[in-house]
Write a structure and sequence with these properties.
heterodimer; A: 2 domains; eight-stranded mixed beta sheet; B: alpha/beta; Elongation Factor Tu (Ef-tu), domain 3; 2 domains; seven-stranded mixed beta sheet; six-stranded antiparallel beta sheet; 9 helices; binds iron/sulfur cluster; binds FE2/S2 (inorganic) cluster
C-alpha cells in the first residue's frame, strides 16, 4: 500500500519503530557516511547513503557471541541493493539461529543517489526485495510504501492517507551490460581464465578490503574469547578469503597458497558457488568493493573485460 | 524460547575413558556415550579456550556405548588435545556431512584404499563390510603408511585378513619385524585384478594420493562414478556457513566430505 506523509508523520513513524526496535541509519562522519545506531528516534535520515560498511556488522557483529539473545533491529535508509543483499544474507544464515530472523528485523528502504561505481541494474534484484517500508521523497511530501503487515501496523498507528500516484521501485544505476551467465561460465572454467586471473591478482594487494566492505562476503572463523577470570566464550570472528590461513589444513599446509588462488576463489564464490547455494550471485552491484580497493581494482571492469576476452560459449 | 538460545553450534560434553598412543604423536581416545552416525561422517570437537578441530570417529557405529577418536598432532589445537587424559571431557557437535555409499556397494566388489590417517573415516565402513560380509562380492583392503611404527589399527588389519579376500598393508620404509608389504600404495593397488563395472572404491588419504591412485584405477577402467573419496579441507563451522571448506562449487562439510571422483575432479584446484 502507498501512503503520503510529511516530516511530522515520519517523526511519528520513527517513534513507533523506536518502541520495538533499535534503530540504525546513516550518519555523516566527516566526508563519509557510517551506518550506526540512532540513540533517539529524532533525526533519522530516511535517504540512503552509501556507508563504507554495510548492515552486516550490525546483525553479525565482530566477535558474535553464540550465547546471546538477538535484539530487534530496524535497519532504515537501505538502498535497493542493500535490501537485496540483506535478504540473501538472511537466507544464508536463516537456519543457523545465530543472527536475527526476518521477523526480528524491520527493513526500511530509502531513495539512493547512485555513484559511478554502482551497477545494481545488472542484477535481478526484484525477487530479493523483501522489506517492510520504503520511504521516498517527492517534491513536497514523502511517499511511504508498505509491503508487509509489520509495515501496515506501523502506518495504522499513525493513520496516514493513501496516495494514488504511481510508484515503482527500480534499480537506478545505469551501467554497461554484463552477461551474468557468461560471467559464471567463464569463471567456472579456471583453465581457460587462468592467465587472466593471474594478471588481475598481480595487481591485487590481497588486503581483503573488498571482502570487509561487501554486504555479501560472510566468511568467519570460530574462536574462544578467553577472559581473565578463567572463563571462555565461543564467538565468531569475521575473516576474509584473502587471509593467508583461510584454506590451511593440517601441518600448516595451504591449499590456496597464491594470491591468484584466493582472488579466483572470491570471484568464484560470488558468481559460481553463490548462485548454486543461494540461487543468486553474491553481488548486488553496490560498488563498495570498488570504492574500497587500494589497488583500484574494479569488479565491474574485471568481469566485463573477462567476458570480452572470452566471449563465446565455452 | 528454546529456539532463541539453541543454535547450530550447540555441543555436548563427553567423557574420555581410555587413551592409547597408537603411533608417534597419535592417540586414540575412547569416549563414553553414543552419537548416532553413519560411516564417513565427522564431528567438530573443541577444546575450550583453544579451538576446534574436525574429526571422523574411527570406531564401529554398532557400539552404542562408546566411540573412538583418533587424533594426531597437526597444529596448535590437536597438539593440546592429545594431552587430554581419561576423566577429561571433550565438547563435541555433529555428526555432519554425508557417508560412504554402502547401498551402492551391495552386490559389488568393494575396494578400500587408505593412505596414512585416511584409514580413520574408513574403519567404520570396514566394520560394516565385515558385519554384512555376505551382501558384498570380494572385498579388498589396501592401506599404506610411512613406516611400520606409523601403522594404525594393526590388530584390525590382521583380523580383517581372515574375513576378506585381499588385505594388504604397505609401508614406504620397512623395518626388521615388518609383516606386510613395502612400497607405495599405488604399487599395491596395481596388483589385484578388478572387474571394472562391478567394483566400488572408497578412498581416503592426502590429495596427492588421490591423484595417483585414481589414475591407477582409471587404467583398470573403473568408472569415475564408482570411485569415492573423502576430502579434507579446513573447517570452522561444519554446517555450510563459514565458507572455509569449499572445493570449487562444493562445500566439503555440506556436500561432502565424500564425493565421487566424477563430481569432485573438475572442481579440484578451483
Ligand atoms: S580490496 Fe582490492 S587489493 Fe584488497 S584484496 Fe580486494 S581486490 Fe585485492
Ligand atoms: S562484490 Fe562489490 S559490488 Fe558486489 S555486492 Fe560486494 S561490495 Fe558490492
Ligand atoms: S566448514 Fe564452514 S562452510 Fe564448511
Amino acid at each position: 500500500m502507498l501512503y503520503k506523509a510529511n516530516n511530522h508523520h515520519l517523526d511519528l513513524v520513527a517513534e513507533v519503530i523506536n518502541k520495538k526496535y533499535q534503530i540504525f541509519s546513516h550518519h555523516k562522519n566527516g566526508s563519509v557516511f557510517k551506518y550506526q545506531r540512532n540513540q533517539s528516534p529524532k533525526n533519522i535520515s530516511w535517504h540512503s547513503q552509501k556507508s563504507i560498511l554495510p548492515f552486516k556488522k550490525i546483525i553479525f557483529p565482530e566477535g558474535l557471541n553464540l550465547d546471546k539473545d538477538n535484539q530487534k533491529v530496524a535497519l532504515t535508509g537501505l538502498a535497493l541493493c542493500d535490501i537485496a543483499a540483506l535478504n540473501l544474507f538472511l537466507k544464508q544464515f536463516s537456519e543457523s539461529g545465530i543472527i536475527q530472523k526476518r521477523e526480528e528485523l524491520l527493513i526500511v528502504g530509502g531513495d539512493c543517489s547512485p555513484d559511478e561505481n554502482c551497477f545494481c541494474d545488472q542484477f535481478n534484484l526484484d525477487p530479493l526485495l523483501d522489506f517492510d517500508l520504503f520511504i521516498s521523497k517527492r517534491e513536497n511530501e514523502y511517499l511511504v510504501y508498505s509491503k508487509s503487515w509489520r509495515g501496515e501496523n506501523i502506518i495504522k498507528k499513525i493513520g496516514l492517507k493513501k496516495s494514488l500516484v504511481s510508484f515503482n521501485l527500480k534499480a537506478k544505476a545505469k551501467s554497461p551490460k554484463i552477461d551474468l551467465e557468461l560471467t559464471k561460465k567463464n569463471i567456472d572454467n579456471r583453465e581457460l581464465t587462468k592467465d587472466y586471473w593471474q594478471k588481475i591478482s598481480n595487481n591485487c594487494f590481497g588486503c581483503g578490503a573488498c571482502t570487509a566492505v561487501c554486504p555479501l562476503c560472510f566468511c568467519f572463523d570460530q574462536n574462544f574469547l578467553n577472559s581473565p577470570d578463567g572463563g571462555c566464550k565461543r564467538c565468531l570472528n569475521w575473516t576474509s578469503c584473502f587471509a593467508s590461513d583461510f584454506s590451511q589444513i593440517q601441518f600448516g599446509h595451504d591449499l590456496r597458497p597464491e594470491n591468484t588462488d584466493r582472488l579466483y576463489n572470491w570471484y568464484h564464490h560470488k558468481f559460481v558457488r553463490g548462485p548454486k547455494e543461494l540461487k543468486s550471485p553474491l553481488c548486488v552491484g553496490c560498488g563498495r568493493c570498488i570504492t574500497a580497493c587500494p589497488a583500484h581494482l574494479n569488479i565491474k571492469n574485471i568481469i566485463s573485460s573477462m567476458n570480452n576476452k572470452f566471449p563465446v560459449d565455452n | 524460547m528454546d529456539d532463541k538460545t539453541k543454535n547450530k553450534f550447540e555441543f555436548k560434553n563427553y567423557k574420555i575413558i581410555e587413551k592409547n598412543e597408537v603411533a608417534p604423536e597419535t592417540v586414540v581416545f575412547k569416549i563414553q556415550g553414543h552419537i548416532k552416525r553413519d560411516p564417513g561422517q565427522f564431528f567438530q570437537v573443541s577444546m575450550p579456550h583453544l579451538g576446534e578441530a574436525t574429526f571422523a570417529p574411527c570406531s564401529d557405529i554398532g557400539d552404542t556405548k562408546h566411540f573412538e577418536l583418533c587424533i594426531r598432532c597437526a597444529g596448535s589445537t590437536t597438539n593440546q588435545m592429545i594431552k587430554l587424559l581419561p576423566g577429561d571431557e571433550m565438547q563435541i557437535r555433529g555428526p555432519y556431512g554425508n557417508s560412504w555409499p554402502i547401498g551402492k556397494m551391495i552386490g559389488k566388489n568393494v575396494v578400500v584404499v587408505a593412505g596414512g590417517m585416511g584409514i580413520v573415516p574408513l574403519r567404520p565402513l570396514i566394520f560394516e563390510l565385515a558385519r554384512y560380509r555376505k551382501e558384498f562380492k570380494n572385498i579388498y583392503i589396501i592401506a599404506g603408511f610411512k613406516t611400520p611404527e606409523h601403522v594404525l589399527f594393526e590388530k584390525d588389519f590382521l583380523s580383517w585378513n581372515s574375513i576378506f579376500k585381499y588385505v594388504k598393508v604397505t609401508v614406504e620404509k620397512s623395518g626388521s619385524k615388518w609383516w606386510g608389504e613395502t612400497g607405495l600404495i599405488t604399487e599395491i593397488l596395481e596388483k589385484p585384478k578388478l572387474s571394472p563395472n562391478d567394483t566400488i572404491v572408497a578412498m581416503c588419504g592426502p590429495d596427492i594420493m588421490f591423484k595417483y591412485a585414481t589414475q591407477t584405477l582409471l587404467n583398470k577402467e573403473i568408472p569415475k562414478t564408482n570411485i569415492y573419496v573423502s576430502m579434507e579441507r579446513r573447517m570452522e563451522c561444519g554446517i555450510g556457513l563459514c565458507q572455509h571448506c569449499n572445493i570449487g562449487k562444493f562445500l566439503v562439510c555440506k556436500d561432502g566430505p565424500i564425493f565421487s571422483w566424477q563430481k569432485i575432479e573438475p572442481e579440484l584446484g578451483k
